[in-house]
Automatic annotation (TrEMBL):
Domain PROP1-like PPR: 288-450
Taxonomic source organism: Mucor saturninus
GO molecular function, one term: mRNA binding
Native organism taxonomy: Eukaryota, Fungi, Fungi incertae sedis, Mucoromycota, Mucoromycotina
Keyword tags: Repeat
Highest taxon of the lineage: Eukaryota
Pfam family, one: PPR_3
InterPro entries registered for this protein in UniProt: Mito_RNA-Proc/Resp (IPR051240), PPR_rpt (IPR002885), PROP1-like_PPR_dom (IPR033443), TPR-like_helical_dom_sf (IPR011990)
Protein name: PROP1-like PPR domain-containing protein
Length: 459
């Protein structure tokens, strides 16, 4: 990732971080979204699904109350809960709280489901102060937390990288003899992988099995992703074999994860073979649905083995598909989205084509596409190659001001930029800042630190 390159006289690349906080584009997002939804799915299943149009005109299915033409004031806890579910799933938690208070004024007592929805929503927002306040209110009203509530709190604390409080919630669960669910363990594993702590993820997997729970497809997807990130491909395939032996059906997340780990190992040809195996009818099996993430991984594989000129042609084709509404659907592209733009940026960066990195980024911003953390990391890496560490630092600081959840990669890129510029003191100060921000260093971080130390004569 930090291959050597010599560039002289390259102009500064444009960047902007004025948009709202971003999500990581690291491939784990798919697993997390699917895992998080399972926490309260069983409780939501009894309500009828409805389809609503979002602001941009797209249809979205809500597992909640069907709106009626004539508004009728709810008279039971169940009816209020249906309204609360609907508003929460539309990201209107304040409106949901108004319904809860109206319920109380009507002489009705909120039940465990009512509190679960509110606490879960605040935990998803990493607003743990409000989440805990609602737990306190729930206890005051004589409602005891269950596994769903504790799982939501664990998820919230893990989202803000507060491992101590997450573990404290887990210990309280065990002390009260509330059995963690499969989703509890999946969330612990998921966040461990996101924090690049595969050792903890494997430990939680062992705990899951010791508790007598059976791994589901999301459990395996999380483990496979973590092993793939660490380049432990042989171990990942052994885990996949275990998955097959336990007769857990492969889904699109698992298949895409297997493709992704081979792309990371630059085994692009085999990644393409896996796409044909799982996502086409070439092997005679029913093809899995192709997700946006699948297309992105496939595009990475295709451009990964192409030269700069060929990548240019693919990029022009991609731009044409956005202009021409009648263009045939390609398995590589899906509309104007951050993943595809970022993939092209990274492809041009690997070919040392910094002007095209800048151009792709400018095209993306012109189409009002929100950059992801990986997009900014790619920009920072381009600056690190120049080297232009000051620009890397500016991007890092703006991301922090924007409340973006950062990881070790962005700090390591800044350290790499300072090391390449020969500023060893800056390398050390960036590392100290990383520790102060409670970001765990990776193997690559320590390699950059040792490299800088050897160049400066320190040990």
């Amino acid at each position: 990732m930090f291959a050597k390159a010599n560039h002289c006289g390259v102009q500064r690349l444009p960047y902007s971080t004025q948009a709202s906080p971003l999500e990581l584009d690291d491939g784990v997002t798919d697993v997390h979204a699917l895992t998080a939804e399972k926490k309260t799915k069983k409780r939501y299943d009894k309500f009828k699904s409805v389809t609503k149009k979002t602001v941009d005109g797209k249809k979205k299915v809500y597992n909640a109350l069907t709106q009626k033409t004539k508004k009728v004031k709810p008279t039971t806890v169940s009816e209020y809960n249906q309204l609360i579910i609907y508003t929460v799933m539309e990201d209107r938690v304040n409106k949901a709280i108004l319904y809860l208070r109206e319920m109380e004024r009507s002489g009705l007592k909120p039940d465990i489901l009512t509190y679960t929805m509110i606490i879960n929503e605040y935990s998803k927002q990493s607003d743990m102060i409000r989440a805990r306040k609602w737990v306190t209110r729930m206890l005051k009203n004589g409602v005891e937390p269950d596994a769903y509530i504790y799982t939501s709190l664990i998820d919230g604390y893990m989202r803000e990288a507060n491992l101590d409080n997450a573990e404290a919630m887990f210990r309280i669960m065990m002390k009260k003899k509330i059995k963690p669910t499969l989703v509890t363990y999946n969330i612990l594993m998921h966040h461990s992988v996101r924090q690049l702590n595969m050792e903890s993820a494997l430990k939680f997997w062992g705990n899951l099995l010791e508790a007598g729970l059976k791994s589901d497809v999301y459990t395996f997807a999380i483990i496979l992703h973590g092993l793939g990130d660490e380049g432990r491909v042989d171990e990942a395939w052994r885990v996949f074999k275990t998955m097959e032996q336990e007769k857990v059906d492969v889904n699109e997340v698992v298949a895409t994860t297997l493709m992704g780990m081979h792309v990371q190992q630059h085994d692009n040809e085999y990644a393409i073979q896996l796409f044909n195996q799982f996502f086409t009818s070439e092997t005679g099996r029913k093809p899995l649905p192709v997700t946006d993430h699948t297309r992105n991984v496939l595009l990475n594989a295709v451009v990964g083995q192409a030269d700069s000129e060929t990548i240019n042609r693919y990029y022009e084709l991609y731009k044409n598909t956005q202009i021409d509404k009648n263009a045939p659907i390609s398995p590589l592209f899906v509309g104007a989205n951050v993943y595809t733009y970022t993939t092209f940026m990274r492809a041009f960066l690997r070919r040392d084509n910094l002007p095209m990195v800048s151009q792709v980024y400018a095209d993306m911003v012109a189409r009002h596409i929100q950059p992801s953390l990986v997009t900014y990391s790619t920009l920072m890496l381009a600056h690190a190659y120049v080297p232009d560490p000051e620009s890397c630092v500016r991007i890092l600081n703006e991301l922090k001001k924007g409340g973006v959840e950062l990881n070790a990669v962005v700090y390591t890129i800044v350290m790499r930029a300072w090391a390449k510029a020969g500023k060893w003191e800056k390398v050390k100060s960036t590392y100290e800042m990383m520790k102060q921000d409670n970001i765990q260093p990776t193997k690559l971080t320590m390699e950059v630190l040792r490299y800088g130390g050897s160049k400066s004569g320190e040990t």
